[in-house]
Amino acid sequence: MQGPRKTQDPPTLMIRIFLLSCLLICLPVNAREISETTFTYWDKPDIQVFYSAPPIITPKTKILFIVHGASRTAERYLNDWVLLSQGRDVLLVAPKFSKEFYNEYVYLMKTNKTGRPMNDTSLDLDSSLDELFNFFSAKFKIQTNDFRLYGHSGGAQFVHRYLMLGKETRIDKVAIANAGFYTFADSSISFPFGIKNMNVSDDRLKWFLSLKGGLFLGDMDNDPKHKSLPSMRKAKKQGKHRFERGTNFFNDLVGLGVKKNAPFRWRYQVVPGIAHDNAGMSLAISEFLLEDL
């Protein structure tokens, strides 16, 4: 069981950012291209999907899903990962959940931010990545049995709820960063702040705890008045700002693992000098998600 820990001092991170900038200048602009498709193979409104493939795709190529925040700038999120994935056998996939059809995507379209159930239950997103994984595996003849997953800000909200409430188990690595607030595994608190009436089984929670996951927090993401910080009363109960809320969530997961006597493989990682910034967080997180590819 791993407790909270810091990884690298600010000077080291600044050096890496500088080196990455040099890489951006030196690499040809078409080293990795971004493509776009429309996913239509389900009974929900279509979604745009941006993706970036390695020069050669093999049956062993890994798929990494990148889930955007409330800005819904899926292409920009993907672009933050393009340089980081150079030389890696990974297909980057960034779906865009439009505001028109998927306004409450961070809650998997189950409720709105106050917990009021959605009128149209057919838009539920708790199997969306499963279906995208099947689609891209077939499209590129990829035979890997599982995928990886990353979300920042609103994307981190989507990802950890997807893991808790979904049925998909073909996930071998996940990272979430700088979520506005969290769904705690507390059956006395209503969703999206807890899991009351969400039918989350003990087996699912144990699976969630056993994932090789990382909760990453920028130590400068500590503004209690940040313009996009959720300010609902129950969100404020989780902490004053994103950094505090993330730390409290991780500590609660540690306690849950002890309570359920379950294997716990999540890591807590502070990224120094970074505030609410996907590019800065991606730089640190790429070492975890891409280290063996």
Describe this entry's structure for a reader.
The longest helix is centred in the C-terminal third of the chain and has 19 residues, at 242-260. The chain has 293 residues and is of the alpha/beta class. The chain is globular, with a radius of gyration of 18 Å. The protein contains 8 helices and 9 strands.
Q: Keywords, please?
A:
single chain; 293 residues; alpha/beta; Rossmann fold; nine-stranded mixed β-sheet; 9 strands; 17% strand
Write a brief structural summary.
The chain is an alpha/beta fold and 293 residues long.
Order of helices and strands: EHEEEHEHEHEHEHHEH
Helix segment count? 8
What global shape is seen? globular
The CATH topology label is: Rossmann fold
**Largest sheet, if any?**
9 strands, mixed
Question: What's the CATH architecture name?
Answer: 3-Layer(aba) Sandwich
CATH class descriptor: Alpha Beta
Please mark out the parts with pLDDT under 50 across 5 or more consecutive residues, or reply none. Answer: 5-10, 21-30
Computed CA radius of gyration, to the nearest angstrom: 18 Å
Number of β-strand runs: 9
Question: How many structural units, i.e. domains?
Answer: 1
Fraction of helical residues: 25-40%
Spatial strand sequence of the major β-sheet: 1-9-8-7-6-4-5-3-2
**Backbone structural class:** alpha/beta
Superfamily (CATH H level) name: Alpha/Beta hydrolase fold, catalytic domain
Average residue pLDDT: 91
Q: What's the end-to-end separation, in Å?
A: 25 Å
Measured by DSSP, the beta-strand proportion falls in: 15-25%
